[in-house]
Amino acid sequence: MKRVLPPLNALRAFEAAGRLGSFKEAAAELHVTHGAVSQQVRLLEEWLGASLFERHNRRVVLTPAAKAYLAEIGPLFEHISHATARYGLPEPVSRTLSVNAPATFTLRWLVPRLAKFRVAHPDVDVKVETSNEPVESLPVTYEVIIRGGPDTFYGYSMRPFLSEERIPVCSPALLQRLPLRTPDDIRQHTLLNTSSLPRLWPDWLARANIAALTPAAALTFDHFYLTLQAAIDGIGIAMGPTALIADDLAAGRLVAPFAGPRLASRSYCTYVPDEKSGNELVVLFRSWLECEGAFTHGDSPLEAG
Predict the structure, then answer these.
(1) pLDDT at 166 over 50
(2) Nearest to residue 295, comparing CAs of 265, 260, 240, 250?
(3) What is the mean pLDDT of residues 252-261?
(4) Residue 130 pLDDT exceeds 50
(5) 9-35, pLDDT tens digit by residue?
(6) Which CATH number fits domain 95-159+275-296: 3.40.190.10, 3.40.470.10, 3.30.70.270, 3.40.50.300?
(7) pLDDT value of position 298
(8) Which terminus in the chain has less CB density within 10 A, N or C?
């Protein structure tokens, strides 16, 4: 008979949080972040289809069902701990998750956050390859594919995790040299373009009611990450995707000189082959992406304790 087991990392986080009555203390014991414990507990709740904690300001309380569940699984962790100490078993073998994502997204959003995933899940190795090919055209099968959407592909499940808009951005140093008080001041500046996205500036200028504006100069790059780097370096103004420039805006490397208009853009979504959608690592990584996507836009997931 096949065993029915929940994600074990999530179960470990639940056991520690339930035993200690605090996500914060559980995080300290497990040597992970408070958010990582919250994320793992939410993953287990999704897997079980039931709430495990009642959240009250800075503390958490087990639900009656969760209390009974903890009473049964808690001693098992003690037995595992004693057996491991007794027999000196080696560290578990690392597990690998294959991910394919666009290069600019990987460089500017995913890579800066992967360290947090690694801290929370040290036994999971994420193998990332970059590509802009359509989902159905990829030459090999990946467990998680990140692309714009939402789109529908036969044989794949889709879930959005990160929304964005596009706005003009530039370096603070550029604004000091050439202020941008109104959109019409753009005519004094260099516009930075990406060859694969030729309509960004024309569409924004039309929305700003200055479609006939002629800038002082224009530069075009073949990769979007080069366009954004040119903006950071003070070369000109770029149309920045809010999700991918959130860290730069927060750090002051880029500024948004205008309140609007803002161009709508496609969301980032995960596309997973149907046969892999129940894989523990896929479920874990998807949940983590959605949690990080919420943080990018300032929407903190449920945390307590």
Answers:
(1) yes
(2) 250
(3) 93
(4) yes
(5) 888 988 988 888 888 888 888 887 888
(6) 3.40.190.10
(7) 44
(8) N
> What global pTM score does this model have?
0.63
CB hemisphere CA count around 255 (13 angstroms):
12
Burial of residue 160 (number of CB atoms within 10 Å: 0-12, 13-18, 19+): middle
Among 26-40, 174-188, 256-270, the least confident range: 26-40
* CA-to-CA dists, residue 184 to 92, 181, 188, 227, 303, angstroms: 61, 8, 9, 22, 45
Question: Is pLDDT above 70 for 297?
Answer: no
- Non-local (6+) Cβ contacts of 5 within 8 A are none
Phi, psi of 149 (to 5 degrees): 180, -160
What amino acid is encoded at 57 in this protein? N
- In CATH terms, the superfamily for domain 165-264 is Periplasmic binding protein-like II (3.40.190.10)
Q: Which amino acid is at 153?
A: F
CATH code of the domain occupying 8-87: 1.10.10.10
**H-helix segments, 58-105:** 64-87, 103-105
